[in-house]
Design goal:
The strands form four sheets. The protein has a seven-stranded mixed beta sheet with strand order 1-17-16-15-2-3-6. The longest helix has 15 residues. It contains eleven helices and 17 strands. The protein is of the alpha/beta class.
């Protein structure tokens, strides 16, 4: 069973610079990432794929009806920190649906949140009446949570983030299932009344091939397999990437225009942040840094002057197409402290050593998988020309009952964060990173 334990003491990481006492706080900020707020009743979901094995994983999670409530609990925890800013590093939603984005933005903005879609109440694979033993049904299966699904569909009130927040776009924000650009065929499925429950042979072979073009050709012939009736809902319409970015900009009051969500902002008077859009709009989960973006990044690093710089992306730059060139730009800047990303659902902190000392590569675990935590940061000056980036993990607020149940279920998820070690080692969570 998952039980509350003591907090972890921070570990000093002196890979780049020796220990020194902090003398002045420069900035306090938080990172929320990979909330994957999803419509668990949508006909566009393909939960049954998991039973087929690799490469299909985490199409179904036992806690998936509770993503909006987990984000709400994260907001409560972040508000208690009182940061100067919050950065949301992508995959705020799961499947590029308008109602998913509306729900997530309502949580971040504050006020009434209605997570239900389709018919009133819950209608999905976790219903008690579903005889399929593959899916966890909270009303009848252990650990039992009677009424959990009904509670998950009820409207609730979110306090909203009290600090300014800054979005970074993720692949699930603008691609169907995080992999495929929306098409006429996928849009018809999302708002329709037929839910695919089993691929036919051609569709299964296309999916296993990971050939996105082949998948599109299969979908062009209609729903590729057996279906069942669901309640149609026009609010489930799939959004284009430009529309998603426009809505993110408007909700967060992020200035700028254009197809990519690249921008810079001040975390504090002496700390500059750079947000880089690494999502490949053509499809796939591997990120991309385009040549035009690298030129823009070079200019923004120069404009930062003598301010400390922190870079935010969704994909890790080290595994992104064009990311090596972007990292070399950061290598050449003596004021870069860290490059922070989401996407991996895993906590990791690694030093990148350069001629000027280096900086830290930081990945943060997701809100949808265990351990469902937020990462906090405090950047402080130490000695002349040196800083320490203190980072620690925040539990989502325990007073939100559904979020507490979600953490328990995420802990038990056989495909999730516990068996896959997404929490990382202690040195990847609470650490003092000297620079």
């Amino acid at each position: 069973m998952l039980v509350r334990g003591p907090g972890e003491r921070p570990i000093d990481r002196t890979d780049l610079s020796r220990h020194a006492e902090p003398t002045k706080t420069l900035a306090v900020f938080a990172q929320i990432t990979d909330a994957h707020v999803l419509d668990e009743e949508s006909p566009a979901r393909v939960e049954w794929l998991d039973r087929l094995g690799d490469p299909f994983t985490s199409a179904f999670r036992p806690q998936e009806a509770l993503t909006a409530q987990v984000l709400d609990a994260a907001v409560v925890a972040v508000n208690e920190l009182r940061p100067s800013a919050v950065v949301e590093t992508g995959d705020l939603i799961d499947n590029v649906q308008a109602n998913e984005l509306a729900t997530a933005l309502a949580v971040l903005r504050g006020g009434r949140v209605d997570p239900n879609s389709g018919a009133p109440g819950y209608d999905g694979v976790q219903a008690a009446s579903n005889p399929d033993p593959f899916f966890y049904r909270p009303d009848v299966d252990p650990p039992r949570h009677p009424g959990l699904l009904a509670d998950a569909e009820r409207p609730f009130t979110s306090p909203g983030l009290r600090a300014p927040w800054h979005p970074v776009v993720g692949n699930h924000d603008v691609l169907v299932q995080g992999n495929v650009a929306p098409t006429r065929q996928t849009r018809v499925i999302a708002v329709g009344s037929r839910k695919l429950v089993r691929f036919d042979r051609a569709a299964l072979e296309a999916a296993r091939s990971r050939d996105l073009g082949l998948v599109g050709r299969v979908l062009a012939r209609g729903i590729p397999g057996a279906t069942e009736d669901v309640r149609a809902d026009a609010a489930r319409r799939e959004l284009g990437a430009t529309d998603v970015i426009r809505r993110l900009r408007a909700a967060s009051r992020t200035p700028g225009s254009g197809a990519l969500l690249d921008y810079a902002f001040d975390l504090a008077p002496s700390v500059r942040a750079i947000a880089l859009d690494t999502v490949d709009r053509r499809g796939g989960t591997r990120g991309v840094v385009r040549p035009t973006q690298r030129r823009w990044l070079r200019r923004e690093l120069a404009r930062a002057g003598n301010r400390w710089v922190i870079v935010f992306t969704h994909n890790p730059l080290a595994s992104t197409t064009g990311g090596d060139e972007a990292l070399r730009l950061l290598d050449a800047s003596p004021r870069v402290v860290a490059a922070i990303n989401g996407d991996t659902h895993r906590n990791s902190i690694e030093p990148r050593i350069t001629d000027d000392g280096g900086y830290w590569l930081i990945s943060t675990s997701s809100l949808i998988d265990y351990p469902q935590q937020v990462r906090a940061f405090r950047l402080a000056q130490t000695t002349a020309g040196h800083v320490v980036l203190e980072t620690w993990m925040l539990d989502t607020d325990g007073s939100v009952d559904l979020a507490r149940a979600s953490r328990e279920l995420a802990y038990l998820d056989f495909q999730g964060g516990r068996p896959n070690g997404f929490a990382g080692a202690p040195r990847d969570r609470n650490a003092n990173l000297y620079r």
